[in-house]
């Protein structure tokens, strides 16, 4: 039986606002317990609404540390970069201090070394091995999550918390691996739109033939809209 908790909302805006409230509550709890909140956000089309709603939350932002779950290999300022969404949503409104945003170093020539260095930074800030308070995940139409995509060698990486992928939809990516995702204290999924319905049903069922289905369910909650939930069991 799945331990994945799913909250269904009327539309994408409702799901995003609920997800933002969940992140804010986790932040308050982590800061009260440990003095800081360490969170990693995924890229993709969906997180923008959630991040904008989160920026409006009255958080002690000086005590929030933001990491990336994944990033495309593209130049600084490229619109393909997930970092652009984080900067626009969290830095532009003046919520998160810039020093508290930790981008993946994807502009470097030696990407494998850059991935190792990002993993080392995570160890320095979140313990060895790194234990993040919350990881936000998305859900691709092909069942990918983070940048763990079907058929890629990164799916089998167990010795590193950060790795490089092969090319996927025009870009190689840097991504957290399953060990890093599963180790986090909590995982939050945000999935909206009818195109997510088949994969959300498979995620709920724990279908390990898709990358998302291999992520640990314990301590995980999904915020989705009604179209995305259309194929879930009643």
Which terms summarize this structure?
single chain; 234 residues; alpha/beta; Rossmann fold; seven-stranded parallel sheet; three-stranded antiparallel sheet; 31% helix
Structure write-up:
The protein is of the alpha/beta class and 234 residues long. The protein has one domain (5-225): Rossmann fold. Helix content is 31%, strand content 18%. The protein is built from six helices and ten strands; from the N terminus they run βαβαββαβαβββαβαβ. The strands form two sheets. Strands 1-10-9-6-2-3-5 form a seven-stranded parallel β-sheet, with helices on one face. A three-stranded antiparallel β-sheet has the order 4-8-7. α1 packs across α2 (47-55) and α2 (47-55) packs parallel to α3 (82-91). The relative contact order is 0.19. The model has no long low-confidence stretch (mean pLDDT 96).
Structure, briefly:
By secondary structure, the chain is α/β, with parallel strands linked by helices. Helix content is 31%, strand content 18%.
Give the percentage of residues in beta strands.
Answer: 15-25%
Helix content: 25-40%
Compute the number of helices: 6
Strand order of the largest sheet: 1-10-9-6-2-3-5
Blueprint (SSEs and pairs):
Elements: E1 5-9, H1 12-34, E2 37-41, H2 47-55, E3 64-68, E4 70-72, H3 82-91, E5 101-102, H4 111-126, E6 134-137, E7 162-164, E8 173-176, H5 178-183, E9 187-191, H6 197-204, E10 220-225
Parallel strand pairs: 1-10, 2-3, 2-6, 3-5, 6-9, 9-10
Antiparallel strand pairs: 4-8, 7-8
């Amino acid at each position: 039986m799945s331990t994945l908790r799913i909250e269904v909302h009327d539309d994408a805006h409702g799901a995003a606002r609920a997800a933002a409230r969940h992140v804010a509550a986790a932040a308050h709890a982590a800061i009260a317990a440990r003095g800081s909140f360490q969170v990693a956000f995924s890229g993709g089309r969906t997180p923008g609404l959630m991040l904008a709603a989160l920026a409006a939350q009255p958080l002690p932002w000086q005590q929030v540390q933001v990491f990336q779950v994944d990033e495309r290999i593209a130049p600084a300022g490229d619109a393909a970069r997930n970092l652009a969404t984080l900067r626009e949503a969290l830095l532009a409104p003046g919520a998160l201090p810039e020093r508290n945003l930790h981008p993946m170093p994807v502009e470097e020539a030696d990407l494998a070394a850059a991935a190792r260095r990002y993993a080392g930074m995570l160890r320095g800030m979140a313990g060895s091995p790194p234990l993040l308070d919350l990881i936000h995940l998305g859900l691709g139409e092909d069942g990918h999550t983070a940048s763990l995509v079907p058929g890629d060698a990164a799916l089998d990486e167990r010795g590193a918390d950060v790795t490089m992928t092969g090319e996927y939809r025009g870009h190689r990516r840097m991504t957290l691996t399953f060990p890093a995702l599963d180790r986090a204290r909590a995982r939050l999924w945000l999935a909206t739109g009818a195109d997510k319905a088949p994969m959300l049903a498979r995620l709920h069922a724990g279908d390990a033939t898709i990358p998302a289905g291999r992520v640990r369910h314990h301590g995980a909650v999904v915020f989705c809209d009604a179209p995305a939930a259309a194929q879930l069991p009643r």
